[in-house]
Write a structure and sequence with these properties.
Helix content: 25-40%
Largest sheet: 7 strands, mixed
CATH architecture: 3-Layer(aba) Sandwich
Structural class: alpha/beta
Radius of gyration: 17 Å
Distance between the termini: 34 Å
Strand order of the largest sheet: 3-2-1-4-5-7-6
Number of domains: 1
Number of helices: 11
CATH topology: Rossmann fold
Number of strands: 7
Amino acid sequence: RDDLLSSGFWEASAGAVRAPLGRSVEPPARCVCYGLGRFGACPVARYQLAFLLLLLEELRVPPGQCSLFDPAFSPQEAVALRQLGMRLLPENEEGKHDVEGSATVFYMVHCGKALYNNLLWRNWSAEALSKMVIIGNSFRGMEERLLSRVLERDYTYIAKVLKGTEEVALPTHPRYLDTFNDTSVHWFPLQKLQELTPQVWDFLEEPMYQDCEDLDIIRREDGAE
């Protein structure tokens, strides 16, 4: 935490974090964090946890309104998160978390594309998506790196929401190149979502990833290797 503050990285990042709030996105009431990793053993995960704590302060989200899940958490790490006042989700949602009408920020740094796709599917309506802010892998970067046919086939909801997305990248910093690289703040203005065609919203099939070759997702135990 002190490193993020003293290095100037947090100060430079705060503008990106605040960007959605002045653009028709209401302040989030809660936060959901996926894929934080083994912060007890991994310095990258510790910096990401410190960033999360600063994020909650900046957005004035109480720690008790922040829920986390990562199957890698050790019992000691689970205790530490509870001591920080945060909650652990009781089961693996595979990213399928409903905002349930509450403005929510999703903190998902370096998660697999399928996790973002599942989250979008669960909240596939203009009203729900307009209440979401996603801090995670750049959607623009996914579009640039993947063949369009692969993006549309395997990650349908990411592909369909691109025209309704606003995105601001976190700044680059030599000390945190492996920690926050390719990370952006995404939000979905209601006006842009309403401009999408009706056909975009009519497709509601749950993602299955049967043809996906590079599947990287937090799976339920019965589906994990």
